[in-house]
Amino acid sequence: AEVAARSRARLFAVVERLPVGPGVLAEARRLRARLALRGTAAAGPWARLDRAALTLAGMAPRLSGLAEPAVLEAAAADRSLRDLAARVASVERALRFAPPEARPRLAEAHRALTGQLGDGVTAYERLVAAAAGYVAEDARPSTDHPASSRLADATDLLHGVASALAELRAVGDPLRAPSR
Fold first, then answer.
1. Does the model's pTM come out above 0.70?
2. What is the largest CA-CA distance in the chain?
3. Using an 8 Å Cβ cutoff, are 49 and 118 in contact?
4. pLDDT, tens only, 86-98
């Protein structure tokens, strides 16, 4: 067992040094945890939390300044909710083997934990939506983008030149003598 643990640790160290290694290991851990919760009441909220956390991770580089404390709070909430999901699954598994007299108390505890998990994941999803709003507003300038205003100016210029050419054509060529 000890040799296997050392081999596993060496393998993880080698994989972490690869350019994509940390991402691969994180995905493997995520998948392992998700499989551990399969078939429990925590599986659905866990999947929602996973999607929301991945979305927030994608926005994290753009969440700076005033949003940084919210990102730190989200990381703590993520860990807490994942721990709560593991508790829900543990209580649910224990409920299957509990003696009949202990089941009502465990079932009530399971319902309460499941409710807390659902509420927590919903709050986390709201935080991700608010973060998306922050990113969108932070990227939106108060005036038009300079490129679009330059394009509008160039468009107006071309319309003006085309209109002037059309007027000149209608008048005729002033340099040419009228023919008989």
1. no
2. 118
3. no
4. 999 999 999 999 9
